[in-house]
Every structure is written in structure tokens, then in C-alpha cells.
Amino acid sequence: MEKAAHRRIASRSRIASHRRAVGLLGMLGALLALMLAGAGPASAHATLNSTDPAQNSVVATAPQAVTLTFSETVSLSSDSVRVLDPRGKPVDTGNPTHADGKGDTARVGLNSGLANGTYTVAWRAVSEDSHPVGGAFTFSIGARSDTSVSASALQGAKADTLVAALYGTGRTVAYAAFALLAGVAAFVLICWPAGAARRPVQRLLMTGWTALLASTVAVLMLRGPYERGTGIGQALDLSLVRTSLDERIGTALAARLLLLAAAGIFLSLLVGQLGQPPAPPVAAATGGAGEAETAAAGADGADAAEAAELRELEQRAAERPQREARLGLGVAGLVLAVAFSATWVGADHASVGIQVGLALPFGILHLIAMALWLGGLAALSVALREGVGAEVVDRFSKIAFGSVAVLAATGIYQSWRGLGSWGALTGTEYGKLLLVKTGCVVVMLGVAWMSRSWLARLRSAPAEAAEVERAEVPEPVGAAARSEDPVRQAQLDRQRAAVASAGRERGLTPTRAGLRRSVLVEALVAVAVLVVTTMLTNSPPGRVASEVQTGGATAGTAAPAPQTEPGRTVELKLPYDTKGRTPNAKGTATVTLNPARSGPNEVKLALDDADGKPVDVPEVQLAFTLPDRDLGPLPVALTPEGTGRWGGTAQLPLAGSWVVSVQIRSSDIDQTTPTQQFKIG
After folding, report:
1. 3 state SS of 509
2. Predicted pLDDT of residue 316
């Protein structure tokens, strides 16, 4: 009979689990369909919208300043905009400012008496989502001329290698520390209040708080060198720290430090309130054993029921202070968790682009769900070692399931918002990292399913399902003092080691040990998820620059163009496919340069469908990049010349292996950027 009952319970549990899974899949499918129905182009990092003087233009007289206008607010440093003459000599006055106080502009003054010729503008700024961006373009005074610009004088958007590595490590540690701090605190409040009195749990909480403090300070110190592309030696420059504090991400980091002070008070209350032994029931304190025996022997059934109800009320009254403490601490912990999450979300991808009002709360939910799951795994690993029962594991299993559901829903939304199109999933660095993260999460879910099987075994074994009470083993007499007898001292040392080992390993039954191993594997995969998450936040979603960086690999599918001769016309054919359903979604982009040489080049762009007929598109952008010299992308201002035809002028200042990229958008959500390599000189 008992086995049959166990089988019925297991069958009901499987049915309930399947229903939850089907419900979750239905909810995610509906959410995905809703988002794709209203999909639009997603915004990435700041992009350069316009310049004054215009890119590739020829002005009659020397301008007094160069003004850049971006797609969003940018932060500037003392060398964010540099202007170089044809010989590579700086001709700007330095210290660029926002034009007319507008945050999406950058203006730098020019020296007087500039000679005729072609000038190169190299710019570097920090976009509103806290990521550095950069590029270059040219304009000419009087007439175009050849120019030889030193590549070392140009600024790209790349940080120093060591600084970038340390900065990324600091951000990863901050994510992990937040997950540990918030997840362990939630585990204690919801699943295992008695854990607040255990030393290993207290060490986990203190580790999370300390690591978050150290990583926040490190990221704040490294922010200045990271933005400016300078070396690690600038990390201690207090002027850079002050500048960083004036930016959005600096404000977020400062707020996080203040929140850590509040979190320290919260942790002391958590351990102080829940770490105390529970108060004894009132009946036990006033009635005594004799009264209980009398009630059991002489009372009839009604009196026994009344006595049981009274004892239950007394027990609730004794537990009320802890319940109230847990409720108050839970509310305070939730407020802190939301505030901590906002310090990330408010200074990252969610804070700019489309649907900011929806992206911000979704980002906060994503981070909190991540902390509940990953931090809870660390706490569960310790709890199993301490001998918790199946009831505690069951509570966390429900929390983990809800966290996974929230992670899936918010993750799908964030992915759609960051990618903007299905083609970006495999065509950009952001999309590839997203696939890696998805794979890691799938592995975590597989390991979590194994953990559920271990949990089922724990439930089915009554002797193991109950929580193990840790008995305090008294220290042997004389153990506190050092013995002069070496043999006796060795015996005392062995006794101490045996007592410590017994207290540590008592809760690890074979089933608990198997469950703990599964949880540890899940936690290790979680570390990989956090690393990939940090890389995602540092990757521009869908930028043309990422396509150009991989242009060599893309162009490798076709034979590279031969070295051109001065004055020779070059025709480059770039097949494209935006994966859309409109007639203009697939065809060939033809770029013609005449003459193909260093200096000014007349450019023609033609878009034809598969049948060779001209097609028009809502948006097309043409740019040239010289990867070997870290020059570009240099956009070309295109003028329509009929259906599917555009013309313009490209200023290619140096000889070398150039990469041409054509960004083509055939609809609101379908976009691609084919690239091809060619040589000049």
C-alpha cells in the first residue's frame, strides 16, 4: 500500500510538472508573437547622424569649429574630437564641448589660418548606454587633396587590452556578487530562516557584500582609462574618477556604494533577528510536564481538542515575532534588490533605444530572477551540507521554477530588443554571444532536471527527508589547554578533528550528497552564464562596425579584388539577403568607384533584385573602412539618382586593403550589411 501511495504521489507530481511546463511554453509563445508583431529597428550605441562641415564636403573657407551630432546623448573628454591636417598635424583647440548645451552634440574649435586641403576628424565619445564609440571622417577646405594621416593619431573605440580585461572582470564579479548577496538573503528569508544562525551562510552573505564593494570600486577606478583607451596607470587619476562620477554610469556606481552601506545594516538585522533561537512555547514555559500528563489522562475529547487548539495558538504567538521580522526584512530586501538592479539597468542597453519604459522594469526583473536562482543555488549547496530537509529544498524548487519563467520571458524580450532582426542572431557578435548564453542556460536547465530527480529520492526516503538537527558535541576535558605530553596532545588534536568533521559531514547523506553535487554543477555553469552576460553588455547590438570587423571573414568567401591601378574604375558586387518577404529583400548591391585611388573617389551605388531590375529600399548606408590602419568607418553621403540608384563622393585618404560595407534595410525589421574587401594603391 505504501509503495502504491508513493507511485500515485509521483504520478500526480509529474502531471503537475507537465502542466506547468505547457503553461510556461504557451505564455512564452504568446509573448514572442506579441513582440514580433510590433517589432521595429532596435537602437544600438550612439551613432553619428550629421557633421558640420558635412562629411566628404568641400567648404570655400576654413570653419571656426567642427560640430558632430549623434543619435543620443554622449559624454565627452578633453580629446574626444581631434582634427588633423593633410600632414597629420593636430589643428583643433582641444577640450570639445556640447554645442549650445545639447547633450547629443560635440563641438571643437579650430586654429585660424588653416590652409586648403583635406582634413581628417577622429572622434571618440561615450554613448548614453555607457559604452565608448568612435570613428573618423574627412572634409576639405578649398579643394580636396591627398592626405597622409598617422594611424596612431586616430582614436578608435577600443580600450587598452589590460584595462578592458580588468574592467570586464570587475563587471562579472559585480554580477556574481549581487547574485550571491541577494540570492542567499532571499533563500534565508523564504526557505530557511534557521540558516541565518549558521556560520557558512553568514560567510556567503559577507562574501557577496565584500565582493560587490570591491568590484564596484574597481570598475569606478577603471572607467576613466576604459573610456579613453589609456593604460592601467591612469586608474589612480582622481580627475578621471571625478569625470566618471559626472556620467550616468558613475552616478550609478556611486549610488551602488551608498546602497552597500544600507545593505550592511540589512545584513546585520537579518542575522541578528533570524539568527536568534526561537522563543519557547508559552505552554511549555507555564504548564510543565505534569499539567500535560493530567490533560492527556483526564480530559475528554472536547477538552483535548480545546487544549490542542490552545497550544497551537500559543505556538503561533511564540513564532509571531520571527514572522513579523521576516516580513519586514523581506520588504526591505526587495526594495534594496530593486535599487541595486537599477544601478545596472539604468546605465546600460535598457536605458536607451526603443520602449525604454518597458525595458527598464524588464531588466530589473531579469536581474532579480537571476539572483534568486543563481544565489539560491549557492545557499542550497551549503544548506544540504548542513542537513536541511526536503521541505526546504521543495520551497527553493518552486522559487527556481518561477525565476526561470521570469528569466525566459524577460530574456526573450531583451534579445528581440537588442537584435532587431533574425539575421543579427548569427551575423553579429551580440547575436553569437546570445546563442552561447542560451546554450549555457539550456545546460543549466538540464542539470536542474537532474536535481529534481535527486529531490524526488530525498522525498521518498523519510529518514533522509527530515532536517538533521546539529548536536553540539562538547569538547573533551582538557582540550582547551595545551598538553605537555606529546602523545596526549596528538590524541586531543585527533579528537578535535573528528568532532569538527562529524559536525560538518553529518547532514550529507548519500541522497543529499548527490543532490549537492548536481547543484554545484549547476552553479558552475551559472558562472559561465555571468561571464557571457558581461560580454553581452559590452557588445554593441547590431552595429555596422561589428560587421566591418568581421569583414575579412565575410569577404573571404569570394576572391579578393586585385590591386587597382590609379585611374581605373572598380566595380564591386555584394549579394545581399535581409531574410524579409518583400521584393527588395534579396538581390545585389553594386558599388562603383571612379577613379579607384587614394583621395576623392566618385561612388555609384545600385541595388538590383534577383532578376536584375532596380529596387528601392527604405534605408541604405555606404561606408569604407581601412582595418589595418584603424581608419573608419568613413560614411558616404548618398544622393538619390533614381529608383535603386545613388551617387556620392568617398574620400579615401590612404592606400591599402579597404572594406566597403552597404547597410540595407528592406523593411522595419529586415536588415543586412554585406561587405567586400578591395585594394587601393
Report:
1. coil
2. 67
